[in-house]
Amino acid sequence: MKRIVVLGGGYGGILTAKHLEKKLKKENVKITLIDKNPYHTMLTELHEVAAGRVHEDSIKIYFNQVIAGRKIDFEMDAINNIDFGNQKIISDTTEYPYDYLVIGTGCKPTFFGNNEIKESVFTLWSLEDAVLLHEHIVEQFRRAAKMDNPEARKLTLSFVITGAGFTGVEMAGELAEYVPELCREYRVNPEEVSIKLLDMAPRVLPTFPEKLSLNALKKLNKIGVECFTGSPCSKVTKESISFGDQVFKTETIIWTTGVEGSVLVDNLTDIVKKGRGRLACNKFLQVEGKENVYVVGDNIFYVPEDEERPVPQMVENAENSSKLVAYNIVSEIKGKEKEEYKPKFHGAMVSIGGRKGLAQVGTPKIMFNIKNSFIALTIKHFINLIYFMQVLGWTKIWSYIKHEFFNVPNNRSMVGGLVSKKTPSLWTVPVRIWLGLMWFLQGLPKVVHKLSGGWEGYCTLNEFPQTFENKGLVCSSLGETVNFVNSTNYANNPTVPVVDVSNLNGLDKILAYINAFFDGFKPTEVTSYGLSYNVFYVFEYYQTNFKWIGWLFTILEWIYNLFMTISDWFMNTIVTWIAPLFEFVLAFGELGIGILLILGLFTVLASTGSLVLTMMVIVGSLFSYNGIFVSDLIWYLVASIVLLNFGGNGHVLSLDYYVMPKVHGFLQKIPFVKKWYIYGEKVDF
Known about the structure:
By secondary structure, the chain is of the alpha/beta class. It folds into 3 domains: about 150 residues, FAD/NAD(P)-binding domain (3-Layer(bba) Sandwich), CATH 3.50.50; about 170 residues, 3-Layer(bba) Sandwich (FAD/NAD(P)-binding domain); about 220 residues, no CATH class. Helices cover about 45% and strands about 20% of the residues. The chain has 19 helices and 29 strands. The longest helix has about 50 residues.
């Protein structure tokens, strides 16, 4: 048995383990994922936790969920060293032998050799860092609210972020957006709060083009962040920081000046390290001199061909490297050729709070600078959804959408509070019960009629017009056949009004055409039984009054006739026995949806069924003569959408309150459901 150990449960480590398991599930291998925490953390969103926009649960994913239903073992352990000679990983209590090793331990904040700084600052590189920083920020406002001394309040409410890269800019923007909320809660004057962003580089976001940097500076200044660049930070204490010739007094210094290799990488001695503790790799992402040891993610130091710099420490690099490393290990096991690492990067996005952002995206040859906040944040959220889809599928995607849009506090999202859930679900209970009652009353007489002898009182589905020329549609409940006359005769039919604009000029003529255009959609005596008949009336109306687009309706009529010729054959051969079954299921479906909605049982499924059934009836009424007005169904449509509140409406004054927790628990025990992450957020152990 080949033993493959993936060390580190970051993005690169998780994807590598999953790729390996997928490719080697039929081979005699053992894949082990090791991490010091029981959960994976979405490091790019730590600033949201630190500044109170989302709860910490929204950016952590437990490994037992990630590997559920897969042939991957997880071990929670803190690894201290690696014995490359004997091929084993060492912790305080255990040794893990390996045949192939993947190192993806990530990085830690760098203090450029001055570790004394660490005692005076807050870092932002782990979930624990974010939670601690959030608690500190809230405590500073709580303390300031009790202070009478203006100088003490100023010191308490001063915040300094060092490092104006992605992490620093995002933290500054998020904090600036959080401050008004804290000021309202603790009755603090916003003018007493200051946020400063420092960097020795000449501008913020120095890796971005200058135009984007200037745009970022403008957006930061607009929300109250003071930016200082072009000088190094020198002396750092718990109450001040020196920046060039200036000294800023503060009790809160957030250190985001860069990263270096992890503690484990620092402990490795017989291995080549470059660029602040990254592992030197060859073109196959093997550690130099260690052919069975591979590297993924931020630990990689590799300069691709025709490039001057090593691959960047970003999420896309972790994704690209995980695929290559998994492929090369599988190739080595199966005796195939390995591939070289030729990564392609498609840009980066940065958020400045929940409402502002910018991006540089495109291809390696062409990059587009996006200053529009809405577009940039849309791209960022889309990339995050792809991230979560690969790690925990639908379960985490739905959680992310709720945290970022539906449950967001104080409208701190790219769409403000437009989709935020603020109305108590209690007020939708009457809608649920009334919609259920309407479906119940729709289905009950049909079911009773069927059980008592047949469907003679209802419209049949086996009659349908084949062309526009004298083809009738039978509706047995009305006991009549409605005929459509051909277009030649219809043109002279008095029920089709002809628009006369010969005596009109200018604006009056234009308005007459506009009114005539919309008149074609208005029901007339010919179409008084339903909108479905109006479809054919519209065709003839426009062929009469707007001959310049008559060719369009000729094509539509030809397509319609072709469709009806095919459907005629289909109905004569198949639908004659499917239709009764369909009608039977439809009637019981209406009755069942009504009962479920009234009881509040499986509300989401019942609401979905109501929505689908309503859409079917609406579409069907456009092409059949059944006496139903589409307008009468609009409220069914709207009510069904309102009730599609996952986990909300169905749990208020309903049986779902008791049933759904048990259903969640049952689903999470099914291997298929666990493997594909379709069980929802609630977890039972």
